[in-house]
Write a structure and sequence with these properties.
The chain has 13 helices and seven strands. It is mainly α and 387 residues long. Among the domains are: 10-87 and 208-308, no CATH class; 317-386, no CATH class. The strands form three sheets. A three-stranded antiparallel beta sheet has the order 2-4-3, covered by helices on one side. β3 (120-126) and β4 form a beta hairpin. 29% of the residues are buried.
């Protein structure tokens, strides 16, 4: 946690990690396997993510904190997509099936799984649609051999986001192509993206590929919701950040908002680098130069920011005290319950927090709940944390 407004070593850690994300392509060591196109594409995605993270820091440095949070939501989504693009090997095929044909389709899938499609894992019907989970490392429809490439890589690379909205095709100008063809292309593009990469489907596919635990999904929802509040222009979000007075404190430097931006940058950059390193170990293996130093850099950054408790299992004393209070609030007569030691609660039983900015400020001050007697000492006390 940072005490001074210079945030101690946090800015230098953020800069170092961003530089690694931006230049990871320069670390490639061409060995017996050679250099493959997807590796260069992955490195380019890293450069783009690094650009987002650097932009967030620049906005924060100029006290444009709400704008920085908006950019960070984009960076977070970019990283989540990269987890799938770099590491996933399962995806869901969804198509309509009439209820009367469900048994026939079930028999067809069983025959495929037992014969030419052993990559089919399982399937289920849901609201008139068949959901088929396919395990594969190759483009859809091919079992393939050799290279380990995420099926999402082909989708994100080929998806065209500029086909227009299907329902607008008849009202917008286009090339000398039949309107029906344009509408079909737009419909297919939207359906493809919506089935894989909109936020809820993105989470589903990450969990399907064991790239996001249930606990991490709760953490992710908290931070995605917090950052989205600024992207959606929620008044409560702006008042939390800039105060209730008119005019507000827009443009005034704020220690806690700045610290939070740095924490997001370090966390997202670290997770992106770790995902890239996991990808590099899959065939075709990609050797990365000076990787031991990078691992040391990431370990130090994670240690310095562990109090953020995002994509990790590191609740602080404040979180443990809040867990005690959550349990007490369920009792009809909480004052009759013997005091509980917060540190005796297992880390994986401590419930997650709801507001990253409020919690960060609370971590900077001593807190005592008079009824329960529970105390949470400040990790790094700051006098302005009491305002």
């Amino acid at each position: 946690m940072t005490l001074g407004d210079d945030h101690d070593g946090l800015p230098s850690r953020a800069e170092s990690l961003i530089r690694t994300v931006e230049t990871i392509g320069s670390r490639f060591v061409v060995g017996d396997t050679g250099r493959h196109m997807q590796h260069d594409d992955f490195a380019e995605r890293g450069r783009i993510l690094g650009d987002h993270l650097r932009a967030a820091l620049l906005l924060s440095d100029e006290a444009h904190y709400a704008a920085a949070f908006v950019v960070l939501r984009t960076a977070l989504e970019h990283h989540l997509v990269d987890r799938l693009v770099l590491l996933a090997n399962r995806y869901v095929q969804v198509y309509p099936v009439k209820k009367a044909n469900a048994a026939l389709e079930d028999r067809r899938l069983r025959a495929l799984k037992a014969g030419p499609r052993p990559d089919i894992v399982r399937w289920s019907m849901d609201n008139g649609k068949m959901n088929v989970i396919v395990k594969g490392l190759y483009p859809q429809g091919s079992l393939g051999h050799g290279l380990t490439v995420s099926p999402y890589y082909f989708v994100v690379d080929q998806y065209d986001p500029f086909t227009g909205r299907p329902w607008h095709i008849g009202q917008i100008a286009g090339p000398f192509v039949p309107v029906g063809d344009r509408r079909r292309k737009a419909t297919e593009a939207k359906a493809l993206w919506d089935s894989l990469f909109v936020y809820d489907k993105l989470k589903r596919n990450l969990k399907l590929n064991h790239l996001l635990t249930l606990r991490q999904a709760i953490q992710l929802d908290t931070h995605y919701g917090f950052l989205s509040a600024y992207g959606h222009g929620a008044g409560q979000a702006y008042r939390l950040l800039y105060g209730h007075n008119t005019p507000s404190s827009i443009g005034v430097r704020d220690h806690y908002a700045s610290e939070l931006v740095h924490l997001y940058v370090v966390t997202i950059a670290s997770e992106e680098i770790l995902a890239f390193a996991r990808m590099a170990k899959r065939p075709p293996v990609l050797r990365l130069a000076n990787w031991a130093a990078t691992q040391t850099d990431i370990a130090a950054a994670k240690s310095a920011t562990r109090y953020f408790w995002f994509f990790s299992e590191t609740p602080q004393i404040l979180d443990r005290v809040n867990e005690v209070h959550t349990r007490l609030a369920r009792r009809k007569e909480p004052w009759t319950v013997p005091p509980q030691d917060p540190m005796a609660i297992q880390a994986n039983r401590v419930k997650y927090y709801v507001n990253p900015l409020v919690r960060l400020k609370e971590l900077h001050r001593d807190m005592t709940e008079m009824t329960s007697g529970q105390t949470s000492p400040a990790l790094f006390p700051r006098p302005d944390a009491y305002r």
